[in-house]
Amino acid sequence: LAGALHALVCQGKPHVARAQLEAALQIQPHDVVAMRLAQAAHLASGNIIGALNCVSRTFPIFDPGHPLYGSVLGMLAMGLTVNRHHAAGDINADRAVNMTAKQDMVALSTQARSHLLQRRTSEGVTWFSDARELFEGSPLLTDMWSTEASIQAQRGKYYAAKRCIVRGIEAQQALPRPNVLALARLTWALWSLGLHVSACGLGVDLSPEMEWGELSELWAALPPGA
Q1: Which phi-psi region, left, alpha or beta, contains residue 215 (left: φ > 0; alpha: ψ -120 to 50)?
Q2: What pLDDT is stored for residue 52 in this prediction?
Q3: 47 Cβ partners below 8 Å, 6+ apart?
């Protein structure tokens, strides 16, 4: 798995990592670490069908008594949710969160993303208030801030959305090396907020020029080809 992890995290080449991890899963279908990395690689390369298939094809062989069953269930929920199978995704994410005592970040991230995709904005804001401390120190912290920013923008709470983006940028600035996927989500959230601000003719104090500059510096800090 070392080569695949290097391709995914250090080189920013999810398509290379994806092929290596899928090959590993053919040999060891119970390898939950390879499965989680494979799903991340599929998501990073925009292959949402692959993000579901890499889990769903082997999920039936996992016994509910397996110590990592809840984590695999969380990955299945993520695959279902990004493919807009919302009802099944919600059910499995809730089960995974309960089975893992709210310790599985993929399951928690799935719940957050489900609120955004289904435009359940009020419920989503309440969820973030209750769960935010769970993400402190997690690699998914920036993802959470980006998702909450999008939810706040949908609600018309543009100042709150901008604060979430600022927190997401700060989380990336604190890392030794920014994460490509996290930067992509922050960029999308900031671009979306800019559209809202422009369309509504809001004041210049909401204009995101400073945040664009900070994001540009984070992108520039990535190695060539990342």
Answers
A1: alpha
A2: 95
A3: 18
**3 state SS of 67:** coil
**In contact, 124 and 116? CB cutoff 8 Å:** yes
Q: What is the DSSP string of 70-114?
A: HHHHHHHHHHHHHTT-HHHHHHHHHHHHHHTTT--HHHHHHHHHH
What's the Rg (C-alpha) of the chain? 18
For residue range 68-118, what is the model confidence (pLDDT) as tens digits? 899 899 899 989 988 989 889 889 988 988 888 777 767 777 777 777 777
The amino acid sitting at 189 is: A
Q: The whole model's pTM is what?
A: 0.64
C-alpha atoms less than 13 angstroms from C-alpha of 182 in its C-beta half-sphere: 25
**Distance, CA of 38 to chain centre:** 14
| Sole residue written with tokens 């945040």 | 211
CA separation (Å) from 5 to 2, 35, 129, 155, 185? 5, 12, 33, 38, 21
CA-wise closest residue to 106 among 54, 162, 173, 177:
54
Structure tokens at 67: 């110590």
Show the tokens assigned to 208: 């995101």
Query: 3-class DSSP state for residue 47?
Result: coil
